[in-house]
Amino acid sequence: MGVRGQRKGYPVILILILMVVILPGCLRQGSGTNGLSEVCRTEFMMDTVFEITAFCRDEAVGQAAVAAAMAEVKRLEELMSAHIATSDVARINQAAGQVAVPVEPETIAVLEQAVDFSRRTDGAFDVTIKPVIDLWGIGKKDDFVPTAAEIAAALARVDYRQLEIDPAAGTVFLPHSGMGIDLGAIAKGYAVDRAAAVLQDMGITIGIVNGGGNIRVLGCKPEGSAWRIGIKDPRNDGGTAARLLLADRAVATSGDYERYFIKDGKRYHHIFDPATGEPAAGGIISATVVADSAMEADILSTAVFILGPDRGLALARQLDGIEVFIIRSDGSSLHSPGLENVLQTIGN
Question: Which of 319, 49, 306 is nearest to 192 (CA)?
Fold first, then answer.
């Protein structure tokens, strides 16, 4: 028997300023701060909890904006979830090795971004990793560890360079049967960005969109200070390893404590290295990325985790506006220079 851990649906980054526990589907509203009304709503979508909060003068405007932002997340789930049979992504996967699939221009745009970041990260992020994810089934199969032959067979169907995207025809094609797209490390971040854009389009300048730990903050807090974002301590359930002070930015964390099991003293987690087909073992247990967009933060937190401390930090240096905070396997941490004035480590 192994030890299983699963925190699916719970944010790996904590917004420390909001301490009220909300059940999925509920709506919270109140007087807020500095005369602003606070409207907050949560829903379970994209296999996680989305919480959207808006601060505004007119409570009715806030309610309408939050509802519209949630509707946008739902639309994207129906478009890009591999678990919804009618989605673009599911149809692409179902037709692997058979035919090119007509999809929405938005799906093509997201997949083009995914392939671009696959190139930038030297394949550490690979949008075609689905065969490996399905093989291991972390969180779905009891302590299952595949054989080397099974891993090799799955890896043979993973290669973002073989994904054929034709913007002119509006089609996407996976050339080999058994290949599959997984947007788990990009779609939630993209949905957070789109929800934030909906809020802004409806006049909301102060708010938070949190999609399972992929966070975008709008403006500063109502009283004018930066949002205080907590980064979970990977080995202390409920503990905080560090805090970030952010305004108008996005942040995401990838860690080995979200979905995992321990078997024969070894931790097997859900973040897979496309080079090996096994849980990434680059010496990182938590990688946090701060970026201008939640989609970038989502993708790059996964890539940095897989690349390891040195290569992950080097990647951040190559990309404009990207900052990282890394917790190594030994519990020590390091961060990029751009976080110097906004990062508060705890206990170090």
Answer: 49
